[in-house]
Specification:
By secondary structure, this protein is mainly beta. 6% of the residues lie in helices and 37% in strands. The protein has a single domain, classed as Cathepsin D, subunit A, domain 1 (Beta Barrel). A hairpin with a 2-residue loop joins strand 5 and strand 6. The longest helix has 7 residues.
Length: 184
Amino acid sequence: MNAFTSKSNKGLARVLTTPITVLIPNTTQQIKSNAIWDTGASASVITTKIVQSLGLIATGMSMVNTANGTVNQPTYIVDIQLPNNVTVKDVTVTGVAALSGNCDVLIGMDIINTGDLSITNYNNVTCMSFRTPSLHEIDYVKNPNWKHGQQANTKQNTNPYANVSRNASCPCESGKKFKHCHGK
């Protein structure tokens, strides 16, 4: 398993970014940059600056939907090294002129889908954590009180009344105390 965690140092983050390294596969040629994480993008993107710095040669073309319509853009194959040396190999990325937010790489769902992405905003601090490969499902509906270090989605308690105090109102909303309703 490979994983990393990134926390905002100035409260809630409006944009999720991390430092990354783009590498030409099977070489030592690389460039460090910042990446924006975008769950609305189906594929990852690099800017012309990255393409020119690494001397990349296009391997194909891709139709890209933008706010201004559909355009045909060149594609390249690269390795992307995320924080903590989490590396995704042989990623087909689309080249674009520029990205917003002082980033030259956009991490899309092609990379995000290789593992698990979790974003929390506890105590007004945004914490993003990513691991690959996926180890198990994390479901905050099934496990609303899940805590770090717990095994997620372990066997669920099948008795909905197991932790109800005898003198509490019955969860079935009968208006009776539990001990006089389902707690008999």
